[in-house]
Amino acid sequence: MVSTPVVDIEVDPLDERRRRRRVLLRIGIPLGGVALMIATILLIAFYADRANRDGALELSNDLLVTLEQRIGIEVSAYLEPAARAVRILRDTLHDGALGDQLPLVETFASSLLREIPQIANLNFADENGNFVLVRGGRDGGIDVKLVENAPGPRRVIWIHRNTAGDEIGREEDPTDAYDPRTRPWYVGALANDQLFWTGIYIFFSQRVPGITASAKYRDASGRLYLFGVDITLDALSRFLGSLEIGRTGRAVIMDDTGELIAAPTGSATLREINQEPAAPRVDELGDEVLTHAYDRFRIEGAGHRVIEVGGHRYISAVTPITSAGRNWSTMIVVPEDDFIGFVASNNRKALWMSLVIVAVTTFLASLLVRQGLRADRGARLLLERQSAITRQSGAFASLASNASLFDPARSLPSRTLTETLADVTGARRASIWTLRGGGRILLCEDSFDRETNGHVEGLELHRDELPGLFRHLLGGEEIEAADAARDRRTVELNRVLSAFGSRALLVVPVRRDDRVVGSVWLEDAPGIEGSRDFVRAVANMMALRIADTSIAPVAREPSAIAKPITAPEDVARNFTADLRPAAIDPSALHAEIFPGMAVMVLRFTSAVAMGVRISGIPRSISDEIACGLQQIATDNGIPYLRLAGYEIVAAAGFQPAESSAATVIADMALAVRDRCTALFEESKHSQEFQIGIDCSLAFGGAVGNEPRVFNLWGDAVHIAGAMAASALPGTVQATEAAYQRLRQHFLFRSRGSFYLPHVGEARTFVLAGRL
Length: 771
Prior knowledge:
Elements: H1 13-93, H2 102-115, E1 119-126, E2 131-136, E3 142-148, E4 155-161, E5 167-172, H3 184-190, E6 196-197, E7 201-202, E8 209-218, E9 224-232, H4 234-242, E10 250-255, E11 260-262, E12 271-273, E13 276-278, H5 288-300, E14 303-309, E15 312-320, E16 328-335, H6 336-401, H7 415-425, E17 429-436, E18 441-449, E19 454-456, E20 460-462, H8 467-474, E21 479-481, H9 494-499, E22 505-512, E23 515-523, H10 532-545, E24 592-604, H11 607-610, H12 621-636, E25 640-644, E26 647-652, H13 661-682, E27 689-703, E28 709-713, H14 715-726, E29 732-735, H15 736-742, E30 746-756, E31 760-770
Parallel strand pairs: 27-29
Antiparallel strand pairs: 1-2, 1-9, 2-3, 3-4, 4-5, 6-8, 7-8, 8-9, 10-11, 10-16, 12-13, 14-15, 15-16, 17-18, 17-23, 18-19, 18-20, 21-22, 22-23, 24-26, 24-27, 25-26, 27-28, 29-31, 30-31
């Protein structure tokens, strides 16, 4: 449902804007300070993160350079003794290594094996294929392999000696087909006049990967001798495995073809070629990070760079090992987080610690906001109390100057008193009630509506209708209900209050000789806290005026009793009459103007509620209401009644002399309101209906083919529908035109201003009942 809002013209927009600005400043400045602190902390955290990250990366580069240098030094220290040993063997033994000086060779080799742990074997060969190999044996001894190839038959003999040099075993191996002239160390040295380093290959006897440093020597007779020192790479692999590069970083040594020289995994990385173990290439290890770093090395060459693999950033560094005498390089890969992870961790800890500061600041800011709002509220309450005291002082002075207000002999209503109560308390309505009929009737002596500046009197409330209210009132209880619909003491009265648009209620009993003889009512009084004592004082003063008439019969002035309204003369009625028999002759009617038309529109706000069945009745709510409307229209002489969807339109005033049209429409609206209220309460549904009334211009005439239909349209129908659409649920809203016609015989309260098409801004009223 779309309703046009009612504008409260009593609210000062400038004052409301100043109040909101003051509250915004009270709240906005502390919260803005907290927000500024949070923004500053985040900015500092961002800057510190970037600065610490850059510093950590620079340190990591320095660390990698240091590691590369250390690896280069370690490799050089690992290989250089073998190169020196080859030169010493060549310059010392010459051709005696394969002759009668074998004991000297064994002694010399044993010393080298003990002093240089990385040396695995010492090799001696000549051009005829004769060969001597010395390697470390068990328990610190040595093993010597002799290959006698020429002259004479080929023999392969193994000699085992202990640490003292004594022979502890000897055997021949006729299956050994080893020929040094086919091995890489021999072939390379033969073609090179300088020291020669082999690539990685598998040693024949031990079946482990390694490299050999070898050199040749030719004696004066032209006979060729070759010397070699074998080095296994397991020691280099163990060294690489011992390096701590961050938490998960690793380093490998490779040559320029990508062949792996050493890796932390050692010989576990060997592959097989023709059923022989061989060293793998870096990109054959199955390590995605190493492969990516190697590919970047092949494209961009050596250097430091950052690579990204699988969404993670890694630092890679490839540096040639110049001191090894080979085309070897060190490749290091380490996750970036290993070096800068502590930066993010520290920043998170700092942010958590900053959150404590923010929490404390927020708490202090909330206290400041609370204190500021309390100060504003205290200042406002103080101003209101001062204003209330000023109003009360003025009110007491006014009452004191007119002492006749409390004279029991005074017969006129106490209009000045109700106006004073409304002015002091700011109540929407102030009224004075007296008990009559033996305490069974509450008679409204005077009720003042501050919005309309109107007075009404004579409204009666019966104990049979409101037993709960009378029980508490006669018990001398002061009733204060912030929401009359939810308070058990006033829930029965809520239907009357809601018709006036009131929600809150204060009832102060008037006592005389310890008996309740009346009460003072204030509806929707915002300033009651500072005026409660004044209201009680007025109630006590009213006890002087109210005569002891609680057992007297009810008496009302003749002017307050509504005169019976006679039904209008028979007039032409609606042809189709969806809700009642047709009574309008379409052939006698043409489209014409009805300047004094009174129209009521009943609008249902819930389609579901219209179809709800009431227990014990076989019809729905809409059916019951339609039947009731037919009867009410017949009783009041309503000539036009039509149902269309969720709206029912009733109209009167087709005849120019029909002066009671507005009255019968208003009576019908009240009867419809009471009937709908009873049905919705019986079905335990909220008041899902709205009623609107207007008295203005309308047009009507028969339209269509036979049977022709009488149609009514114009401002009266449209505005009555707008009144219904914007009315409070369960109430009757009327335009100012309807109010002017009905105010002598009906009770209204002003609701506010409403914009009407073709009319402009006009006042609207809520129809409460008959006077």
